[in-house]
Amino acid sequence: MAQDVVKHCSLWIVFSFFYLSGLEMAVIMSIDGQPQPTLWQTLLYTFLYNALIGHLVTKYEKLWPFLASIVISLFGVVGFGVFFGDKLAGYSNELIIGLVLSLPFATFLVKQLKSKNFENNA
């Protein structure tokens, strides 16, 4: 059991680096695409990207998809984005907190939608 957790966490941490690359592009595009950028619109546009990632997490991680999204979000945004890479260091704390919470929430919603869709089809 412990070996599985370590193996899965290692994969999630590696994936979080690549998640940050896409998230950084989504943040830049959402800010550049707005005439008057606001925090809520930026979080809404990046939530759409996180919904896609949440779909991938629930598709490929069968044991702990919600825990995977938390680890990916924390290591991607806080670990690689703020501390190790400084890619997201120039943004506001509110945006950083919103980005950290967005992926677990999106993963939860995607998982609920998939289970409702499965129940309706059965």
Automatic annotation (TrEMBL):
Protein name: Uncharacterized protein
Organism domain of life: Bacteria
Keyword Transmembrane helix: yes
Organism (species): Pseudoalteromonas luteoviolacea S4054
Segments passing through the bilayer: 12-31, 37-57, 64-85, 91-110
The entry's keywords: Membrane, Transmembrane, Transmembrane helix
